[in-house]
Design goal:
This protein has helices at 37-50, 113-131, 145-151; strands spanning 14-17, 55-60, 66-78, 93-104, 136-142, 156-157, 166-172. By secondary structure, it is an alpha+beta fold. A 7-stranded mixed β-sheet has the order 1-2-3-4-5-7-6, with helices on both faces. The structure holds coenzyme A. Coenzyme A binds next to strand 4, helix 2, strand 5 and helix 3.
Length: 178
Amino acid sequence: MSANNNPPTPSNFTVKKLCDKTDLSSFDCSYDDELRLNDFLHKEAFEYQQEDMGVTYLFYNNDNEIAGYVTVAMGFIRKKRTHLSVEGDDKIHFPALWLGRLAVHNHQRKSGVGTYLIKWCIGFAKKASVDMGCRFIVLVTKEGYRTKFYTKHGFQKCIVELDENKKMLFFDLKNAKS
Ligand SMILES: CC(C)(COP(=O)(O)OP(=O)(O)OC[C@H]1O[C@@H](n2cnc3c(N)ncnc32)[C@H](O)[C@@H]1OP(=O)(O)O)[C@@H](O)C(=O)NCCC(=O)NCCS
């Protein structure tokens, strides 16, 4: 798979929710994993899900290997962090999907899987917005290639920053093509 020539499509993946029977043993995203996303999936994600704190979706490729995963939950973003001009004071909170975790297997990187995961999350949030308010996708990540990776896909950096290393980004679902 190549990000430029042959980007992954839905036919390349089967998406499954993490469950007690999921075999995670072959999944490894520990390379360049400053955010400890490998540990999270192996040690915490299932319990996290049982506590209704975040649902993890696994993306199986056609060889039935887990190519990547995302963990999502409900969230919000304060108006003052966005560029949106809407009546009301800055303390207003906008409804959002919280993209808590997103990672790709070491051996599947730079072939468009991460891009596919983002697009899947955008579609997922758009669908959710039919049944309940959900205007944005929000996440926190490290400054550097990760923020570039997201901005390339239409995410914007928040006006109010968290700290020097961590940035909050948001995606306005109104900008997403249906
Ligand atoms: C960040 C991550 C998800 C990207 O996944 P991926 O499948 O490699 O991404 P893609 O193949 O879709 O790449 C898309 C773009 O991201 C950028 N990119 C991805 N990895 C990069 C890296 N290591 N260095 C610089 N740019 C990178 C490139 O701009 C690339 O575009 P290009 O193909 O035109 O060069 C993956 O590196 C990863 O899982 N990292 C560890 C976990 C993590 O940090 N997740 C992000 C947490 S919020």
